[in-house]
Design a protein that fits this description.
The structure holds two protein chains of two kinds.
Chain A lengths: L1 H8 L3 H18 L9 E10 L9 E3 L5 E5 L4 E5 L5 E5 L14 E4 L5 E5 L4 E5 L5 E6 L10 E6 L6 E5 L4 E5 L5 E5 L12 E6 L5 E5 L4 E5 L5 E5 L1 E2 L5 E2 L2 E6 L5 E5 L4 E5 L5 E7 L2 E2 L5 E6 L4 E6 L4 E7 L2
Parallel strand pairs in A: 1-23, 18-19
Antiparallel strand pairs in A: 1-27, 2-3, 3-4, 4-5, 6-7, 7-8, 8-9, 10-11, 11-12, 12-13, 14-15, 15-16, 16-17, 20-21, 21-22, 22-23, 23-24, 25-26, 26-27
Chain B lengths: L1 H32 L2 H4 L36 H7 L8 H4 L31 H4 L28 H6 L1 H4 L1 H4 L14 H4 L14 H4 L19 H6 L13 H4 L11 H8 L28 H4 L24 H7 L17 H4 L32 H10 L13 H4 L11 H10 L21 H7 L22 E2 L23 E2 L1 H4 L37 H4 L15 H4 L11 H8 L27 H7 L24 E2 L14 E2 L6 E2 L1 E2 L3 H4 L37 H4 L2 H7 L20
Antiparallel strand pairs in B: 1-2, 3-6, 4-5
Helix pairs in contact in B: 17-19
The chains are: A mainly beta, B mainly alpha.
């Protein structure tokens, strides 16, 4: 049919082909940006929690649903209930038991132990849910350099504690009592190496997701530090990171990653395929320096917005 | 077919073009990829902005590639994306509390050099000071000032001083000293909030007080200085000003300093001092008038016409800007100040010499006094407590120390006496009873109401020494030494001080009480060591006399030089009768030579302030003879020297008009018979011929300390016989008459008329 038409109309087919080819070639250079809309994961804003924190970093949810927020610049941990109502705080500036020096990371075990990465004191401190100091252990590097523990996660597997040593580009694994089990990582861009590992999260298989900040990726390891895969790439397009900071998983295994510079949170499937950016009514939702993120059992996405000094609580709609 | 082959050909050509374009694009991308480390900050260099896909952040054109110019690369958000703790944690420093202003245009006081760029809007931005490529960039910092990605090295605040040149040039701009060695000890508390000294930790830099990021105080001070707590970290002693009257938050809370800050806003230190661009030396923050030198800053508030309802210094106040009485003593005891207000041993007495204006109570930093407490000599911002023993005054006025152990210490002798401030001696101290440094009655800082109508100084003394005064038991009596008189008319010169009507020492001044007395020194030679506590009875050796008057009457002789020849003669009772007593019961040892015959105060006898009972005189004798007879009579000290006769015939009035000049050797005074005053016509009496103070008329010298027998050329005669008043009437006959004047046998009786003749 097409051929006939050509014949009948006596059009110079060759010329059409040439035009098409040239058009195709140049169109790749000349197509304007924003031609394609962003993939969205829609959410609904629920409320903000503003507990008078100063540049908070990370949070964890206790078995009873209370939220524990690391208010590191104020050298304390704030506890609010699941609706954001103030409960109490604990900690002060110092290096004694129960005191902090610019802590950054937190996790809470199923049995209600609160683990704090007391960054400036180069140690892990453990409290009960009321803020009562239980014990502490130092994070050592084995060399002259000091450790820089910025996050901690508690594993159900052997009760391992995974500690990200940011300045030393390592993940150190401890028993809950503080005995070092093993560690992995070094400075670099290869798989299993890091450039400033930051926050972490575990999935149901006790696999470890580590935000590799300057390598702009999230690396996934088995519980013993064997590299499995990584998520994200370098850039400012969808599925890319510029300053990834927080990582969280939802019940379906989706992986969410906050980017503090771009002010976005992106979602990935459990296989690491880009799923979309957190939106509100199909419009990209902008966060003010999002860092620690978490998704609770009610499928609420809680986002620590560091420079906004608040936790934003959203409902994941999909 | 040919069509097909052509199509293939064109397709191949098109593909080639497409491939070329793709290769070019990917080559460009490859080139950019090699810059990944750069793009850690230079985000706009990302290839992603050059694709057809929507980026998660917007592309921001402009200044992307311009070196040293503000762009996204040096935005605060970019800095924070690494310094949030997950590469480097600067939250508690850079984004905590207060930071150096950014995104504002520099003020007129700031000179930003070319090497420190401003934004395209001419504003300060992060990149003005910071650059990953700067000379001062170093990941971990070092002592050479390379840290925090500084654009320039920052050795001892050198980066700050590139812009803040006025403050750096502190001497010219009256700003807080920098880079100077100080005796202050920098406390550890200073460094806790982030203070930095010079590398050797001995000298102040900008960053000693200021913190560029994370400053807790306004004006990016390391701590909130609203209560001057930062100042007081180093200036601990001055911190005692808080809650005193000089804490203007209490006393003048709405009063503003030169920076237009009220005292309530500025804090106690900054009410008077500002660290930069002060009104004057000492970082003075209050309005200065002409004539308010650095050394007299107090007057900016305590001056006459400031309008403040606070204490002024009054018309009569302790002199300032003067040399201390004794530089050696003063410099050791109290600080002296140079013209620029700095302490200097060669300086002068200023307000700060006596006052430590930062401390209310010199003995207790805890005693702040408060707003309404009236001060006294134990506090009042004095450097040394001045009550009890007037220690402060006496640090300089060391020559007045003896007053403490004397009857003039009214704390002992008149403890209830009050000065014009209504303060008793125990509160004012011994000096403060009579002198107050401010708001006094006179230039001599008199603290008493003057009394009487005599000369000024006498009024001061009689303020106590009057019938109702504190010293009512020590009055002058009816007859006392003349005061308020000049010596010139007597042709007397003296080494003692003479005074004008204002109480100032002048060469031609008058004799006043303090010509002879130094009210501060009881004993001119020997300070009292064991002061009994009250009302010591004095004598000629002490009694606040300027010179001791016993055993030699040096004080009297300081004026009465011609009377000094009495020493060592028969009339010096040290030689002839040491046991003889005057009317006060004093021996010559107690009264001195002069005091044997003359009482300066409280003499019952007006004539010559005679210190003895007048001697008996016969019908023919004058009252002047009674003075001599008081000794030269029976039962008295000179009873062995009683002339057989000593009268000139009555009614032979003698005129001495030609012999009345005291300075001439032929001086022959004639006295009124009853009053004893010198007259020119009358009878002769003992003193007409005798000068009781000089043994020989020809030898103006002291005696030889022996009881001598006289003759016609000695014997205290005023003149030799050939030139005495006798010859005026008797001519040469006088030689004989003179010889037999005291000899009733040899002497002829007067004849009814004519001239007496010798038988």
């Amino acid at each position: 049919m097409f051929k006939n038409t050509i014949k009948h109309t006596n059009v110079d087919v060759r010329r059409i082909y040439i035009y098409l080819i040239i058009l195709t070639a140049f169109s790749s250079l000349c197509i304007p940006a924003n031609l394609f809309a962003l993939e969205c994961i829609n959410t609904k804003f629920l409320f903000d929690i503003k507990p008078s924190a100063n540049q908070p970093s990370d949070m964890a949810i206790a078995p009873n649903g209370d939220i524990y927020l690391v208010d590191g610049v104020n050298n304390r941990v704030i506890s609010v209930d699941s609706n954001g109502r103030w409960k109490f705080s604990f900690g002060s500036k110092g290096s004694d038991n129960g005191q902090f020096r610019i802590p950054l990371g937190i996790d809470i075990s199923d049995n209600g132990k609160v683990f704090i990465a007391d960054t400036g004191n180069h140690r892990i401190q453990v409290f009960d849910l009321t803020g009562k100091f239980l014990y502490m252990f130092p994070v050592k590097t084995g060399s002259k350099s000091k450790s820089d523990p910025v996050d901690i996660v508690v594993s159900k597997l052997k009760n391992y504690l995974y500690v990200s040593d940011n300045d030393n580009h390592k993940i150190r694994v401890y028993r809950q009592g503080g005995a070092l089990e093993f560690e992995w990582g070094k400075f670099g861009e290869n798989y299993g190496a890091f450039r400033y590992p930051g926050m972490m999260v575990l999935n149901d298989f006790n696999e470890v997701f580590v935000v590799d900040v300057l390598n702009t990726r999230v690396q996934k390891f088995d519980p013993f530090g064997e590299y499995i895969t990584d998520i994200g790439s370098w850039g400012v397009l969808e599925g890319s990171f510029f300053r990834p900071k927080g990582v969280a998983l939802d019940t379906s295994g989706r992986i969410f990653v906050s980017d503090s510079y771009m002010g976005v949170i992106q979602g990935f499937t459990d296989l690491g395929r880009y799923a979309g950016v957190i939106c509100n009514k199909n419009q990209k939702r902008a966060f003010n320096t999002p860092v620690g993120i978490i998704i609770d059992k009610d499928n609420r996405l809680l986002v620590v917005e560091m420079r906004a000094n608040k936790i934003t609580v959203l409902k994941l709609l999909e | 077919m040919p069509h097909i082959s052509r199509i293939k050909k064109y397709a191949a050509f098109g593909s080639l073009i497409l491939l070329t374009v793709m290769i070019c694009q990917s080559a460009f991308a490859l080139d950019m990829s090699s810059k990944r480390d750069c793009v850690v900050c230079h985000v706009m260099w990302l290839d992603d902005f050059r694709t057809d896909k929507e980026s998660l952040i917007d592309f921001e054109p402009g200044n992307v590639l311009m070196k040293d110019t503000q762009g996204v690369v040096s935005s605060e958000g970019m800095c924070y994306s690494c310094h949030d703790g997950y590469i480097q944690d600067s939250r508690h420093i850079t984004w905590n509390f207060n930071s150096h202003p950014t995104f504002v245009k520099p003020s007129n006081n700031i000179n930003v050099p070319m090497e420190l760029p401003l934004s395209v809007k001419g504003e300060l931005y992060c990149g003005t000071c910071h650059s990953a490529h700067g000379k001062g960039a170093s990941s971990h910092g070092d002592p050479m000032g390379r840290t925090s990605l500084f654009r320039e090295v920052n050795v001892d605040s050198s980066l700050c001083e590139k812009c803040h040149r006025n403050e750096a040039s502190y001497k010219n701009s009256n700003s807080h000293p920098l880079h100077t060695t100080t005796s202050l000890k920098f406390p550890d508390e200073l460094f806790e909030p982030g203070s930095k000294l010079e590398i050797n930790r001995k000298q102040v830099t900008c960053q000693s007080c200021h913190k560029i990021h994370g400053a807790k105080g306004k004006k990016i001070l390391i701590v909130d200085n609203g209560d001057s707590s930062l100042c007081m970290l180093c200036h601990k002693e001055q911190g005692a000003i808080a809650e005193t009257k000089h804490d203007l938050r209490l006393t003048l809370p709405d009063e503003k300093n030169v920076k237009d800050q009220s005292a309530a806003e500025s804090g106690p230190c900054s009410a008077c001092h500002t660290p930069h661009r002060a009104a004057g030396k000492k970082l003075w923050a209050r309005p200065l008038k002409k004539g308010n030198p650095a050394t007299q800053l107090c007057l900016t508030c305590h001056g006459e016409d400031t309008g403040y309802e606070i204490k002024g210094t009054g018309k009569h106040s302790h002199p300032i800007n003067v040399d201390p009485i004794s530089k050696e003593n003063a410099a050791d005891a109290l600080p002296l100040f140079a013209e620029d207000g700095s302490k200097s041993p060669k300086g002068k007495v200023q307000c700060f010499t006596c006052h430590d204006i930062h401390r209310w109570d010199p003995d207790s930093a805890d005693n702040r006094g408060g707003k309404s407490v009236e001060g006294d000599s134990s506090n009042s911002f004095l450097r040394i407590s001045n009550n009890f023993s007037s220690s402060l005054c006496l640090k300089c006025h060391t020559d007045k120390k003896q007053i403490v152990t004397s009857d003039h210490n009214l704390e002992v002798t008149a403890p209830k006496e009050k000065n014009i401030q209504g303060v008793t001696p125990s509160v004012s101290g011994p000096c403060g009873v009579c002198h107050i440094p401010h708001n006094a009655n006179s230039d001599h800082l008199w603290a008493k109401e003057p009394f009487g109508d005599k000369d000024f100084v006498t009024q001061l003394c009689t303020a106590c020494h009057n019938e109702n005064g504190a010293a009512r038991e020590k009055l002058l009596g009816i007859n006392f030494h003349a005061v308020d008189v000049t010596l010139k008319k007597f042709n007397i010169t003296t080494t003692l001080p003479l005074y004008d009507s204002e109480g100032n020492v002048i060469p031609d001044g008058k004799v006043v009480c303090i010509t002879c007395h130094d009210p501060h020194v009881w004993d001119p030679n020997n300070p009292i060591k064991d002061y009994p506590g009250k009302n010591v009875e004095g004598d000629a050796r002490n009694s606040f006399l300027r010179k001791t008057n016993s055993p030699s009457s040096d004080l009297c002789k300081a004026c009465h030089e011609d009377k000094a020849f009495v020493d060592g003669t028969d009339h010096d009772l040290n030689i002839t009768n040491m046991e003889a007593k005057n009317l006060l019961g004093q021996t010559v040892k107690e009264s001195g030579q002069c005091g044997v015959c003359h009482l300066v105060h409280n003499s019952p006898n007006k004539i010559k302030l005679w210190a003895r009972e007048y001697g008996k005189i016969s019908r023919h004798e004058d009252i002047a003879d009674a003075l001599c007879n008081s000794c030269h009579s029976k039962g008295n000290p000179a009873e062995s020297k009683i002339p057989l006769i000593a009268t000139h015939p009555e009614d032979k009035l003698i005129n001495n008009i030609m012999r009345s000049d005291r300075s001439q050797i032929d001086y022959a005074p004639i006295y009124d018979r009853k009053t004893g005053e010198e007259v020119h016509v009358g009878n002769i009496s003992c003193p007409s011929c005798h000068n009781a103070h000089q043994w020989s008329p020809l030898v103006k010298s002291k005696g030889i300390n022996q009881n001598l027998e006289g003759n016609a050329t000695t014997s205290f005669l005023r003149n030799v016989s050939y030139d005495n008043i006798c010859i005026d009437c008797h001519g040469l006959d006088a030689l004989f008459r003179y010889k037999y004047f005291h000899d009733p046998v040899e002497r002829v009786e007067p004849r009814p008329s004519g001239v007496n003749i010798v038988r």
